[in-house]
Amino acid sequence: MKITFLGTGTSQGVPVISCSCRVCTSTNNKDNRLRSSIMIEHEEKVFVIDSGPDFRQQMLRENVKRLDALIFTHSHKDHTAGMDDIRAFNFFMQKPMEVYATDFTQQKLREEFPYIFNKSDYPGIPELNFHSINGDTNFFIEGLEIIPIKVLHYKMPVLGFRFGNFTYITDANQIPAEEKKKIQGSKILVLNALQMEPHISHFTLAEAIEVAKELNAETTYFTHISHRLGLDDEVSLNLPIGVHLSYDGLQLIL
């Protein structure tokens, strides 16, 4: 299994429009972050978690020629806004896109992209098949078992996912004790770490480090990173052993 970090930034991305801070003007490519998303390649099948506003750019950068399924963590626009660009995969693969999301997220997608669902016969609109998932039931895509993990993004339910020994969680500031049991034993954990200062709906760096220590994965990568976290080089110097900042384009082989 290969994991590619398509984007590791927060909702505004990094650099932030009009910002002249040290991070947004950094010449280190690791400080440039598109909106958070990952790609999973497993036995010649390709899955993407979340299609944010940078989805098209991410697919072109990684030269993705096929996409077998799109999986959503939740309905916020920085995770869904690029869904229209599945049209290219519809055309070249000659089939609808398989989309996995909770019923709530599906409803929000219907509201955000009404032209897909209004039974229009206009050519060129995205074609998709919805599959309902929830936080209590494991599901399979192309033979790969996926364990959903329920987390909270302030008061909003969000799903993380475990694939074998790999767990991915973004947009969270609470992980219930029962859900932490699903994560135990992961070799690689990806967890959001927004910034240094407290935030209403995201883990801070210090909070994410404490969660990483508790869950005790062999390696932890932080994602969904804001320009307010600081420069990649400087933050990385002070991270515990086995804990790293992820960056756009990072690839892991499991």
Task: List the topology elements.
Elements: E1 2-7, E2 37-42, E3 45-49, H1 55-61, E4 69-71, H2 77-80, H3 87-93, E5 97-101, H4 103-112, H5 114-117, E6 128-132, E7 139-141, E8 144-153, E9 156-163, E10 166-168, H6 177-183, E11 188-192, H7 205-215, E12 219-223, H8 232-237, E13 243-245, E14 251-253
Parallel strand pairs: 3-4, 4-5, 5-6, 10-11, 11-12, 12-13
Antiparallel strand pairs: 1-2, 1-14, 2-3, 7-8, 8-9, 9-10
Which descriptors would you attach to this protein?
Metallo-beta-lactamase, Chain A; 8 helices; 28% strand; 14 strands; 254 residues; single chain
Task: Write up this protein.
The radius of gyration is 18 Å and the shape is globular. A seven-stranded mixed beta sheet has the order 6-5-4-3-2-1-14. Strands 7-8-9-10-11-12-13 form a seven-stranded mixed beta sheet. By secondary structure, the chain is an alpha/beta fold. It has one domain (2-247): Metallo-beta-lactamase, Chain A (4-Layer Sandwich). The protein is built from eight helices and 14 strands. The model has no long low-confidence stretch (mean pLDDT 97). The chain starts with a strand and ends with a strand.
